[in-house]
Request: fold
Amino acid sequence: MSQPRRSPHDSYETETTDHQTETETILLKHVPLNPDSPSPLQKDAHLQFLVRNLIQGFPSRYISQDASQPWLLYWTLQSFSVMGVALDPNNKQKAIDTIMAWQHPDGGFGGGPGQAAHLLPTYAAVCALAIVGRPGPGGGWDQIDREKMYKFFMSLKQSDGAFLVAHHAEVDVRGTYCLLVTVHLLNMLTPELLEGVPASIMSCQTYEGGFSSASQPYFSPEPEGPPTLLDSPRPPLGEAHGGYTFCSLASWVMLQPYLALQKPSLQRPSLNFKTLLRWLVQMQGSEIELGGFKGRTNKLVDGCYSWWVGGCFALLSSLGIVGAHGRDDNYESSTAHQEDEAWDDIDESLWDRAALQRYILCAAQHPAGGLRDKPPKPADSYHTLYCLAGLSSAQHHVFLSSTRQDAIVRCWKTPPESTHEQLRQACFSHSLSWTEEEGTSRILGAQNNRMNATHPVFNLTMTHTEGIMAHFYKQTIPSRPKKT
Reply:
């Protein structure tokens, strides 16, 4: 087998080119002899890594993550879920009690007991509760103070539609994503909360096509009353980044039902999907980089972007970008029940799903358990989840099914004292219509490498998403057709 070609070099050496050359040299040692038979997924070692952190506690180097305790738990629990492992009732209850200790008395969740409420740990705490929580006393779900949480969210909203991540903190599109996921899961959507958010997200798109963390709004002073927000200029702040891009695009997908309910006469914000798609596909590494994804232009590949960038293609597909990831309801796979046959996906020209799996299996697995950025770095909880979630996104076609959405709408029952029902019904059915297409899974290597499919927007399993949303929306969700 011939060696992969090195990245082009213009003979002008910099720290960036040195790091790239060093990374390629290391990754070259991890290229499998047979591209179709990569290293198997070491599930037992990864489970032991996760269990050790959960039961015995995290190593001392995690002290720096004291304000990220909800994230550490969410990364661990969702890693279990993607690998098809559930906690026993005793450890579930311990997790619930731990999570509820993070709830702030004025709404939302902090990064630890007694810490200030913040949008990012609020998302992590609610998603962790979606996995381990339940209705009733002590179950966590009914102990969430949604009224105070909503007030907390509104107190963070800015006049340009962006959100502070916490009081006296910065604006960040990741906070917008975390807020939108939370209000979707907990049935807290209102037009008041969503007003101006689509335009705010649109303004974060950079000339490259990806998204930055925020934008700079400008206002026109008025003789009386507050100043008026200008449509332009509203430049993005910073360069395009994989994490910001996923959060922006996932937020845009969540906002589609809200936008569809707006008056046709209103000018709708729009994204430049051509430049976005071009930027996303350019983030996938070459053969010598094993097909991993990088998060920014001229940066190194990193396992976590398997989800933050690789996960964007299913989102694009849901917005009608042809060939980005999935199929439509009427597509009939010619390779159904032949998953061991050659790869023949129509979207191979856009991104290489097999190569991404190869990177995760051959380079991102740490020999002692857990997954990592790239060798020789250590494993950690963050990279463990987002490598596994990226592996899942590369294996499964999960798409928005109009058939599934229609079935959900037909079962909708107006709950007592319902407010903003049209918006909430639309968002509920839209969020739960994601469906895995039968017969299109592509598992590189042994079938033991298979991950559970995960929700492309929320990064929860479909089961956990349906469970928590059915409870808070007070709906009965129609059963899915049984797999044949």
Observations:
- Residues 330 and 401 are 10 Å apart (CA to CA).
